[in-house]
Write a structure and sequence with these properties.
The protein has about 400 residues and is of the alpha/beta class. It folds into 2 domains: about 5-255, 3-Layer(aba) Sandwich (Aspartate Aminotransferase, domain 2), CATH 3.40.640.10; about 260-395, Aspartate Aminotransferase, domain 1, CATH 3.90.1150. Helices cover about 40% and strands about 15% of the residues. The chain contains 13 helices and 12 strands. The protein has helices at about 5-10, 15-20, 45-50, 65-75, 90-100, 115-125, 170-175, 190-195, 230-240, 245-280, 295-305, 325-330, 380-395, and strands at about 80-85, 105-110, 130-135, 150-155, 180-185, 205, 220-225, 285, 310-315, 340, 350, 370-375. The longest helix is centred in the middle third of the chain and has 33 residues, at about 245-280. Belongs to the trans-sulfuration enzymes family. One of its GO terms (molecular function) is pyridoxal phosphate binding.
Length: about 400
């Protein structure tokens, strides 16, 4: 942690979001950093070029714009360094490629984001790396799965789509005792509500596409490492030639300035709707870690400072043959909730979750699982939209 990061720790999250990552006095007082488009960077003389003895050497290795975003993310994460990559999936794949080699074994939580599983089961498998999936509730018991060649343990908390919680500290301690690095996808909570490096994680991963962007118009991932793994991470991204674009970095930095107040609204609205759903007879279960009824609530309450706007619920239906019919009728009746992937933007979204890839953390039974992203709209309007969905769902399977 830098001196500036330590000094800024005295301030609240929204103050830090408004000020971290850029000093206006560096650029004539302008409150936003310049967008520097660059590939070639010139050197003043041959000796400087030979020794690369200047801050910027080539566009893929950073510009004032990308550095401003990285500095802001480091301030949030408490990390030694951050890299920017073109997507959330790249934010997973780049550190994986830097940490493991042919013949290695890795442990990945079974409730992981499906594209991460696909990357492990295809790309890593072709490279001779074995992936084993573990129960998100395993805690310190993960020690029993460690092997001499286990080099990486990957967490995602809450779990993708079904929101299983993990005991991050217990898993990280066991993984380190076995000689493995620990990575975590923390996109759901953002570092405002959970800071993985404070719980023993070595590398924190985010799809900045989601809440840091906040407007459903930018693709970017951030990867933040502690001091031990920062040299590996920066070397990997340079070797792969993967980098974030300056225009996208500028937009993400702009989104960070309002992320705190947006997250407060997402959290408040999502909890109101989740509690409303809990009281409905046509909802079998609500999968939201901040609800007292949720199985992993105590871990969430102990470790997390807040919740985001994404959760799921089980639409009650006793006949599995009618799952899609009922779910599609529900979704097609929605007007304010768009049908789309991703989340974290200003607009509400809905989709039917597919969980056929799971081997341990099986899909809830009793009906189709519907995932909601609660945006910034007014809660009564969103509830009215959901009411129309439930009405359509009932009609689709009646008789």
């Amino acid at each position: 942690m830098t001196e500036k990061q330590r000094a800024n720790n005295q301030f609240g999250p929204n103050t830090r979001l408004a000020h971290d990552g850029f000093n206006p006095r560096d650029y004539h007082g302008f409150v936003n950093p310049p967008v520097v488009h660059a590939s070639t960077v010139l050197f003043p003389d041959a000796m400087t070029m030979d020794k690369r003895a200047q801050k910027y050497t080539y566009g893929t290795r950073g510009t004032p714009t990308t550095d401003a975003l990285c500095e802001a993310i480091d301030a949030l994460e408490g990390s030694a360094g951050t890299i920017l990559v073109p997507s959330g999936l790249a934010a997973v794949s780049v550190p994986f490629l830097g940490l493991v080699s042919a013949g290695d074994h890795i442990l990945v939580v079974d409730s992981v984001y499906f594209p991460t599983r696909h990357f492990c089961d295809t790309m890593l498998k072709k490279l001779g790396i074995e992936t084993e999936y573990y129960d998100p509730a395993i805690g310190a018991g993960i020690a029993a799965l460690m092997r001499p060649n286990t080099k990486l343990v990957h967490l995602e908390a809450p779990g993708s789509n079904t929101f299983e919680m993990q005991d991050v500290r217990a898993i990280a301690d066991a993984a380190h005792a076995g000689g493995a690095a620990v990575t975590m996808d923390n996109t759901w909570a953002t570092p405002l509500y959970f800071k993985p490096l404070d719980f023993g994680v070595d590398i924190s991963i985010h799809a900045a596409t989601k809440y840091p962007s906040g407007h459903s118009d930018i693709l970017m991932g951030t990867v933040s490492a502690n001091e031990k793994y920062w040299p590996m991470l920066t070397e990997t991204t340079v070797t792969l030639g993967v980098c974030g674009a300056p225009d996208d970095a500028y937009q993400i930095l702009r989104g960070l300035r309002t992320m705190g107040i947006r997250m407060e609204r997402h959290q408040e609205s999502a909890l109101k709707i989740a509690r409303w759903l809990e009281g409905r007879d046509d909802v079998l279960q609500v999968l939201h870690p901040a609800l007292e009824s949720f199985n992993g609530h105590e871990i969430w309450k102990r470790d997390f400072k807040g919740a985001s706007g994404v959760f799921s619920f089980v639409l009650a239906e006793s006949d599995p043959a009618k799952y899609k019919t009922k779910a599609f009728a529900f979704l097609d009746a929605l007007r304010l909730f768009g049908l789309g992937y991703s989340w974290g933007g200003f607009e509400s979204l809905a989709l039917m979750v597919l969980l056929g890839d799971r081997t341990i953390a099986k899909a809830p039974t009793g009906g189709p699982v519907i995932r909601l992203q609660i945006g910034l709209e007014d809660v009564p309007d969103l509830i009215g939209d959901l009411e129309a969905g439930f009405k359509s769902a009932r009609s689709a399977v009646s008789g």
